[in-house]
Structure formats: C-alpha cells, structure tokens
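Sample pair:
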Amino acid sequence: MCTYVTEQSATAGSGKGTQGWFPLTSTTVYFDHPVHAQADHTLNLDFVNPDRGPSARVAVELTAASAVGLVEAIARVFTQVSPDLTGVDDAAARRLLAAAEALREGH
C-alpha cells in the first residue's frame, strides 16, 4: 500500500553525486515503496538542489529499523557535542534520543 506521506525540509549542507559535490537546499522524506532496496517499504530521503537539475540529487532508501537507528545515532552525537558547536539545545537532543529509543522499543 502506498502511504503518500511526504515531508519536505529546507536543507543546508552538501551532497556528492555523479558529478561531484554540490550544495543541498532541500530534503524530501517519505515512507513508500523503494526503487532499489530489498524491502516492501522504506523511509526514503531525497537530498536535492533543484536549481542544479536532476543530477543534483542523493537518494537514500532505509528500512524502518535502519532509519530509527540513524535517528538514534544522530541524537547520541548531539548529546555528546557541545551545543555551542551544534546550535542544538542539550535538552532537545536528549528528547530526540528518548523519542528514537521509544520508536526502537516499538519494533
């Protein structure tokens, strides 16, 4: 079943595609059928810069368990690095980690 659940987020960073590094401006996140991953459904991340055309895209398809693990890993890093460097409030990072751990328990 297709979920059609899609979120977009402004993105500041860089991605490496077939023609080298390029600035990222947007990320699309959706849970649906993968194109390549061997799973029925995946969390799909498309990191893009639409101004640079279709080649300025990095696509990732993750199983739900892998996506939750990634959120946990990101949250753990943010809880260990000074908020002065990340701009991420320590309490917010801990809430993110707790939410990710709760998701893991649901699997």
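The mean pLDDT is 92.
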